[in-house]
Amino acid sequence: MTTLLLKNILLDGRTTNILIKDGLFADLNAAADAAADSIYDASGEAIVPSFFNTHTHAAMTLLRGYADDMELFTWLNDHIWPFEAKMTAQDIYNGSRLAVLEMIRSGTTFFCDMYWMMEETAKAVEEMGIRAALGVTLMDRLGEEKIAADLRFLESWKSPCANRVELAIAPHAVYTAGPELLERCAQAARSNGQRLTIHVSETRQEVEDCIRARGMSPVRWLDKLGVLGPNVIAAHCVYVDPEEMDIMAERGVTVAHNPCSNMKLASGIFPAAKFAASGCNITIGTDGTSSNNNLDMREEMKFASLLAKVSNNSETLPAQEAFKWATANGAKAFGLNAGVIEKSALADAVLLDLSNERLTPNYNLVSNWVYAADSRAISGVLCDGRFVMHKGIVENEEEILAKARESVARLAG
């Protein structure tokens, strides 16, 4: 049993002591002299839940700024996929470690990924101490031999740290995965007890092409194929009508809203108010760093709220709700008792330095955190009850940056 005592920390407006045991919040009102293996004096700091990033492409940190200011399909076909074809396993590992470093420094302790060579990303996550659901990307163009091998890998894979890393099945989208592959993915996800993550209705062109090819929109098509269910995380969902929202809510689908990527690629405006009223579990993702261009979930929840307001009214998606989308709702989507600071919940949290100018004055900490602050306000990050960033320091940071630069030099050269 390992224990950590956080002394004199601000929680929900009151100063208290928090005892953490074996990765869980054990006592939110602990005695100041409670026995613990480690004691941290958090005077002048506040504790809030960490972020759960429900859609990204971690190793794309190596493509940050590589192909900017163009629409989705030109960006993908002419720039991103040709670059990615040159990436080795070492590149994926280096890029994933860079992504995890960035996520830790900005307060994220869980991410749902969709990419290639997931064993490399799993290794990075395991080493750096956070959580992830790692989606193995599947597309028709990979060919049957590769698809079959990936499905076998998904079925047989054993997590190196079972409580922190899981695999997910990730058919890319309806325009890259045909009906047979989508059905195979859905069946495999159910058989393996895994999540399925997929891009859905991200652009108007995607919806129009699907209607032409299949006679119905992507959501209706996926539902007809039996793909939709409570294990599904549907990313983007920009062009979804009220009837489709009802279908998704009835099937228990989680929606991953990616406001910065949608704005940067001019994909469209997520119907936040209608989705919030639909009963769907709404979460937030950053997407990859080539279409955002960072992994900062605090920035993402601010943009989610502001985008919802400017397309509806000033009362839409208030700070507390945006914060819930970025924390508790993300944890819920993956069956994690987390995203909250409560007894027996997973001890995943962010410590905020209340002396930071953007947290001053502190009338409402959640409002400050959503609308005013930036990652400079983060003094520490906890995952599974241990510091993955302590007093602003992440282990091996310089080496992680150096290795990422080596990959970029080779790929760009």
Relevant terms:
single chain, 413 residues, alpha/beta, Urease, subunit C, domain 1, TIM Barrel, 2 domains, eight-stranded parallel beta sheet, four-stranded mixed beta sheet, 15 helices, globular
Molecular structure report:
The protein is globular, with a radius of gyration of 21 Å. α12 (about 320-325) packs across α14 (about 365-370). An eight-stranded parallel beta sheet has the order 6-7-8-9-10-11-12-13. The chain has a four-stranded mixed beta sheet with strand order 3-2-1-4, with no helix packed on it. It has a four-stranded antiparallel beta sheet with strand order 5-14-15-16, with no helix packed on it. With about 425 residues, it is of the alpha/beta class. The mean pLDDT is about 95. It starts with a strand and ends with a helix. It folds into two domains: about 5-50 and about 350-395, Urease, subunit C, domain 1; about 50-335, TIM Barrel (Alpha-Beta Barrel). The protein contains 15 helices and 16 strands.
Short description:
39% of the residues lie in helices and 23% in strands.
**Coarse morphology:** globular
Q: Total domains, how many?
A: 2
Give the N-terminus to C-terminus distance in angstroms.
49 Å
CATH homologous superfamily designation of the largest domain? Metal-dependent hydrolases
What is the tally of helical segments? 15
Main sheet properties:
8 strands, parallel
Low-confidence stretches: none
Strand order, largest beta sheet: 6-7-8-9-10-11-12-13
Mean pLDDT: 96
Helix-residue proportion:
25-40%
CATH hierarchy: architecture of the largest domain: Alpha-Beta Barrel
